[in-house]
Amino acid sequence: MDVLDRDELKRLLTRGWFLRYCYAPEEIEQARALQGVRRLEYLAGRFAAKEAVLKALGRGLLQGIAPRNIRVERAADGSPSVELRGEAARVAARQTVRVSITHKESVVAAAALLVRPE
């Protein structure tokens, strides 16, 4: 689980390295197509989801998995889905990651669950 205020993220986005470290190229491209509050909401939701996935994997933000290797995309039904790459995929081998993201005013929350095969 992770909770984030969009204003916190707004400050982090002023640092050039942050966007490149935290977001997959496809997420950055998608964010560029959005404007204003919607862009910030999109990035905040993905960041909270990545933090939740890292916690589910037993890692922290700077503990061996770059958040850009956790891609949060939209499934055909509109729900968020996760694609793991690099070290994230290795750590979660043979597991599926489920994620949920919610927004209310300036607060974003996300929950992640690792599902192991039976």
TrEMBL record:
Gene3D superfamilies cross-referenced by the UniProt entry: 4'-phosphopantetheinyl transferase domain
Keywords: Magnesium, Metal-binding, Transferase
Domain named 4'-phosphopantetheinyl transferase: residues: 18-97
Stored Pfam families: ACPS
Biological-process GO terms, alphabetical: fatty acid biosynthetic process
Name of the protein described by the UniProt record: 4'-phosphopantetheinyl transferase superfamily protein
Signal peptide: none
Organism from which the protein derives: Streptomyces misionensis
Any one Gene Ontology molecular-function term assigned to this protein's record: magnesium ion binding
